[in-house]
Structures are given as structure tokens and as C-alpha cells.
Amino acid sequence: MSTSIQRYTRSERSSHWVVAITFILAALSGLALFHPAFFFLVHLFGGGPWTRILHPFIGGVMTLFFIGMAIRFWRFNRITPADRQWMKRIGDVIQNRDQNLPEPGKYNAGQKYLFWIMVVGIPVLLVSGMFIWQPWFAPFFPIWLMRVAVVVHALAAWIMILGIVVHIYAVIWVKGTVRAMTHGTVSEAWARHHHRAWYREMTGK
Ligand code: HEM
Q1: pTM of the full predicted structure?
Q2: CATH number at residue 68
Q3: Which terminus of the chain is more solvent-facing, meaning fewer CB atoms within 10 Å of its CB: N or C?
Q4: How does pLDDT run across 36-59, given as a tens digit for each residue?
Q5: How many structural domains is the chain composed of?
């Protein structure tokens, strides 16, 4: 029988899930404000005015928890020369030919690049969002800056939504990953197969 290895503490998992839930709520309320085709989503938030009021506050909570999470995961996401090799051989990753790949540590290069997209994307959303946040901050800024901010905000949000769709797809696609964020543990077999250098570090094998 395969034993388990601890991957996340209870508090790491809690902060991840607060970020995940607030991200989804921010995305749904933001889409409702973005285009009439998504306007029906306002019903989830108590109507149009409430969607408009709540959206920036949800984004603020997400940013705060994201900062806490990003600080904890920062050191595991440094890009190494082995990560560049891994990225070049992405074909082997997709075909599951792991024997041709450098051994990943706690995270593989795909996870790391996505982490950095989040680290850049969330502050961009926060700052561009502040410029257009009526009635609190927007009155302090010139109209041209608000116009630029609206475009930057929408663009950054789309990139982030696509990134998170890839993130969710990947954790479901790689069997045995979701339990890392629900129970905090992974099987030894999972660690050996997907994150061999981390497996060695954790088990000394
Ligand atoms: C329903 C949506 C989500 C699900 C099901 C999910 C699931 C997971 C799982 C299972 C892991 C563990 C992967 C591993 O240890 O190899 C993980 C890691 C992570 N997730 Fe999520 N997640 C979701 C949304 C989000 C969102 C919205 C963000 C941030 C905006 C996020 C940021 C992260 C980060 C930073 C990690 C650690 C990976 C790293 O540091 O490179 N997740 N997620």
C-alpha cells in the first residue's frame, strides 16, 4: 500500500480556498458587468446595483488572501535551468513520457509560470480596479487614466480567467492532485511520478 506525503498544511489550504472562491465570485460578478450576454449573473449577487457594489470588495479580499498565499509559495516557484528544459519538452509532458524530462521539484515549470502570471495579474487587477472604483477612488484620477484602466482591467481579467481554467483543468487531469488541496496529502506514487526531486527531498529515498 502506498503511504501519504504531506503537501499542504491546513492554513495553506484554507488560504488557497478563500482565494479560489473569491476569484470565482469576482470573475462571475465582473463578467456580469462586462457584457450584456453575462448580465443574468447579477441574480447571484442580489441584482445589478449589488453586483456593482460587491465586485470590488470581493476583489480586495481576494488580493489580501492571495498576497498571504503567494508569500508562502514564493520560494517553491523560482525558475531554474531545469524548468526551461522541461518547458522545451512540453510535447513529452503531454504524451506522459516522463523519462525524457528533468525531475521536477515541488512544482513543475507549467505550475511555476502560472504562479508568476497570478503574481503579476492580481496586482494589475487591483491597481487598475482602484482607478475605476466609484465613488471611493475614481474621483481622484483623470478620465483618460480611467479609460486606460478599464481596458487594462478587462484584459488582465481575461488572461487570469484563462489561466485559472488551465489550472483547474490540470489539477483534475493529473489524477491524485485535488486531494493535495482537500486533504493536504498526496500518495508516494503520485509524488514519485510527478515531482521526483521533491519526493526524494521529502522521503530521503
Ligand atoms: C476551483 C478552483 C481551483 C481548484 C480546484 C484549485 C486546485 C488546486 C490544487 C489541487 C492545487 C495543488 C497542486 C499541486 O500541489 O501540485 C492548487 C495549487 C495552487 N493553486 Fe489552485 N485551485 C483553484 C483555484 C485557484 C485560484 C483562483 C488561484 C489563484 C488566483 C489558485 C492558486 C494556486 C496556487 C498559487 C497553487 C500552488 C501552485 C504554485 O505555487 O505553483 N488556485 N490548486
Answers
A1: 0.94
A2: 1.20.950.20
A3: N
A4: 999 999 999 999 999 999 999 999
A5: 1
